[in-house]
Write a structure and sequence with these properties.
Helix content: over 70%
Structural class: mainly alpha
Strand content: under 5%
Number of strands: 0
Largest sheet: none
Number of helices: 2
Order of helices and strands: HH
Length: 57
């Protein structure tokens, strides 16, 4: 069970990082893509915090 949670957290983090990279590489214009980039950046930050807390235990 712990292994499933670990891989789920890591996959969420990896997918959100990949989506954020795609947004930034897609001719990034701050005003146009802020609605997509900000939630992805928050998701990346929170998921990396969750992975760090989980791996510390």
């Amino acid at each position: 069970m712990r292994s499933i949670i670990r891989y789920l957290l890591i996959s969420i983090m990896a997918l959100s990082i990949l989506a954020l990279i795609i947004v930034y590489n897609n001719q990034y214009i701050a005003e146009a893509h802020m609605a997509r980039a900000l939630p992805l950046a928050i998701l990346v930050g929170l998921s990396s915090i969750a992975v760090a807390i989980y791996e510390k235990k």
